[in-house]
Fold this sequence. Notes:
Number of strands: 10
Organism: Egibacter rhizosphaerae
CATH architecture of the domain at 41-134 and 204-293: 3-Layer(aba) Sandwich
Region (Disordered): 1-34
Low-confidence stretches: 1-36
Shape: globular
Radius of gyration: 19 Å
Helix content: 25-40%
CATH superfamily of the domain at 41-134 and 204-293: P-loop containing nucleotide triphosphate hydrolases
Domain ABC transporter: 44-283
Mean pLDDT: 87
CATH class of the domain at 41-134 and 204-293: Alpha Beta
Strand content: 15-25%
Protein name: Phosphate ABC transporter ATP-binding protein
GO molecular function: ATP binding; ATP hydrolysis activity; phosphate transmembrane transporter activity
Bound molecules: adenosine-5'-triphosphate, magnesium ion
Order of helices and strands: EEEHEEHEHHHHEHEHEEHH
CATH topology of the domain at 41-134 and 204-293: Rossmann fold
Structural class: alpha/beta
Distance between the termini: 33 Å
Amino acid sequence: xxxxxxxxxxxxxxxxxxxxxxxHLHTEVRRSSAASREITDTVLKVRDxxxxxxxxxxxxxxxxxxxxxxxxAMIGPSGCGKSTLLRSVNRMNDLIPTAKVVGSVYYHGEDIxxxxxxxxxxxxxxxxxxxxxxxxxxxIYDNVAFGPRLNGVRQGLDDVVEQSxxxxxxxxxxxxxxxxxxxxxxxxxxxRLCIARALAVHPDxxxxxEPCSALDPIATMAIEDLMQDMKRDYSIVVVTHNMQQAxxxxxxxxxxxxxVDHRTNERTGELVEYDLTETIFTxxxxxxxxxxxxxxxx
Length: 298
Ligand SMILES: Nc1ncnc2c1ncn2[C@@H]1O[C@H](COP(=O)(O)OP(=O)(O)OP(=O)(O)O)[C@@H](O)[C@H]1O
Ligand SMILES: [Mg+2]
């Protein structure tokens, strides 16, 4: 998060659609028994979400539940609003002056846009890892200790740093050079350092925006293995352009597309389908999903 502009929060929220019991989307028909696996424990509920940048509506009508201790993939063509959605569920869009969020996001049942909610605390609990590894120009140790220090932690930092690096599967590679620069690590190591930095403040949801797109296949596999390991303790939402990756790592997949209004030429993102990954990849309900995952799209 360190590379984000520290401007004042401007996002506003209207509407108070309460979370409902129903945890599925508009795809009423379930064609396989596996597809009926319900979400029993939800960490994030997104209701009727719309995000605008000034007059431009980037995304609208999003309704989705993120289950606990699972990996949820978000896929769809460039510009359909995947990053916009990720930033809306941990209030990172507050940092974009023109962004306006309409609708509701509930984290463990609590509306994260309610007046008395501290966006910094939201971002601590719902951490984010970006496409390009972005370690601070500091030592490996100081990168991981950064968040805890910001939160006032002074004691036990060595333990927090070690535990976070272990959880990010980086400890063995860096334990002898903790004072070395984070920028001196390889791309894959830098990304794991960023994951360790996110974990150090004890989040329970991790948002990953194309975390492997700057990495080679070996580093990508290391991150995918790590994600599988992490889901025991965290709930993960990952945006990816890599269909194989979505199929390999995720439990559920949400497919988004861009609707073009031919009169105004407005391009608005919408959620087409959300289901078990297996269902999305083998028997998608919507032709647009099938076209996209089989590469027939644009
Ligand atoms: N800060 C911003 N100001 C204005 N418009 C924005 C801003 N960020 C994104 N947009 C617009 O919102 C739409 C959705 O963008 P977003 O980055 O969320 O898409 P995406 O699905 O993540 O795309 P990609 O796959 O290329 O990363 C796009 O039309 C984009 O141009
Ligand atoms: Mg994006």
